[in-house]
Automatic annotation (TrEMBL):
InterPro entries in the record: EryCIII-like_C, EryCIII-like_N, Glycosyltransferase_28, UDP_glucos_trans
Family matches, as SUPFAM superfamilies: UDP-Glycosyltransferase/glycogen phosphorylase
Domain (Erythromycin biosynthesis protein CIII-like C-terminal): residue spans on this chain: 238-378
Domain Erythromycin biosynthesis protein CIII-like N-terminal: from-to ranges: 23-222
Domain of life per record: Bacteria
Protein keywords: Glycosyltransferase, Transferase
Entry similarity comment: Belongs to the glycosyltransferase 28 family.
Swiss-Prot/TrEMBL GO biological process terms: antibiotic biosynthetic process
Gene Ontology MF annotations: hexosyltransferase activity; UDP-glycosyltransferase activity
Keyword check for Transcription: no
CDD domains: GT1_Gtf-like (cd03784)
Species per Swiss-Prot/TrEMBL record: Phytohabitans houttuyneae
Protein name according to UniProt: Glycosyl transferase
Length: 382
């Protein structure tokens, strides 16, 4: 069986697909990834990849969508509602997906997959599956509800549907949740999957990272898109508070330009890119922007987390709520992250206990291999 996986180029969207990709390959299936802008993410995961849209720039597309429609811009920056429905945001998803349609469809028609797996906002996966008449499987990226997102996105891309003779998007054949049941603050849309989260590969230097004798806390803003789209302004109050805490801090911002942060406090060091799984195992806690992959990496490492929720980053609100309600971490606006909040993050054993409980819950869920087998059987029946 041939499985095509596709995602918009954001770490928190693509990385959740990788465990499934590896599981399909381990079971003997052919796997191919369609990923624009950062195809190296798939290549570094050992996966064959095609860039379906050379020159694609996600941040520019997002900004262009918002600038073109001020009314939608106002709606976009409102918090996601209590129903967790993301379909009202379809105009942004159309902006991300439109440039991917031609190249992804050309690739799919050439390779002829039997199954298309896409993440929750990559409607092009559903559209391509509809065109080829094969099932589409969705991998969720957080505690949000898809509802009519793909249908609405496809309707906003009606010119492309007409140009490439793409039929209406049918119902998704299966959905694989990102979070375990106890952290899902939205109604479950599909099946659950356990296993270790994928958070990138990379050269670790001449030796493994070591755990410090002092508390060590990661400060992160995700894998790139968030840092570039929202900027690093939220880091300034975090760094100011970190300077007053008796702990070491690792600034993990990947390849982001940190010159705007000025001189770092003596107890803060930049790390560049390092796989979170390896970094977090040497740390006491992590402060991050509210990405699902980062949250799961912290749970997998058994450390508590603090979501420093940028008021502009409303898309991370549902994940922050899940972290707080399950008790695996704290939530605060960056300006409210005081030294006392960081000290609680480091020393509150109740956060560590809840994290251990969720880690065990995830370990008991079906493995990626079991889920891949189920999805392959599903594709064979349809």
């Amino acid at each position: 069986m041939r499985v095509l996986l596709t995602s918009v180029p954001a770490v928190g969207h693509f990385f959740p697909l990788v465990p499934l990709a590896h599981a399909f390959r381990a079971a003997g299936h052919e796997v191919l990834v369609a990923l624009a802008e950062h195809p190296e993410w798939a290549a570094s995961a050992g996966l064959p990849v095609v860039d379906p849209a050379p020159g694609y720039e996600a941040v520019a597309l997002a900004m262009g969508t918002l600038e073109a429609d001020p009314a939608f811009r106002d709606e976009w920056f409102k918090p996601i509602g209590p129903d967790r429905d993301i379909s009202p945001r379809a105009k942004m998803f159309a902006g991300f997906n439109g440039p991917l349609v031609a190249g992804t469809l050309e690739l799919a028609e050439q390779w002829k997959p039997h199954l298309v797996v896409h993440e929750q906002t990559t409607s092009v996966g559903a559209m391509v599956a509809a065109k080829l008449g094969v099932p589409a499987v969705q991998r969720n990226i957080g505690p949000v509800v898809t509802n009519n997102t793909h249908r609405l996105t496809a309707e906003l891309l009606a010119d492309l549907n007409e140009k490439y003779d793409i039929p209406p998007v049918p119902a998704t054949a299966e959905i694989v949740e990102l979070l375990p049941p106890s952290m899902l603050t939205a109604p479950a849309e599909g099946i659950f999957m356990g296993g270790a989260p994928y958070n990138g590969g990379g050269l670790l230097g001449h030796s493994l990272p070591r755990r410090s004798e002092r508390p060590q806390v990661v400060l992160s803003m995700g894998g790139g898109f968030s840092a570039r789209f929202f900027g690093l302004g939220a880091m300034h109050p975090l760094l100011a508070s970190a300077a007053e805490v008796d702990a070491d801090f690792v600034l993990a911002l990947g390849s982001a330009d940190i010159s705007s942060l000025g001189t770092l406090p003596p107890n803060v060091r930049p790390s560049g890119w390092i796989p979170f799984g390896e970094l977090f195992r040497t740390c006491t806690a992590v402060v991050h922007h509210g990405g699902g992959s980062t949250a799961l990496a912290a749970i997998d490492a058994g450390i508590p987390q603090l979501v420093a929720l940028d008021p502009m980053d409303v898309g991370s609100g549902p994940l922050a709520a899940s972290v707080q309600e399950r008790g695996v971490g704290l939530v605060a606006a960056p300006d409210d992250v005081t030294p006392a909040v960081l000290e609680r993050l480091i020393g509150d054993d109740t956060l560590r206990t809840a994290t251990a409980e969720v880690r065990m819950e995830i370990a008991a869920l079906p493995s990626p291999s079991q889920v891949a087998t189920r999805l392959a059987d599903l594709a064979a029946r349809i």
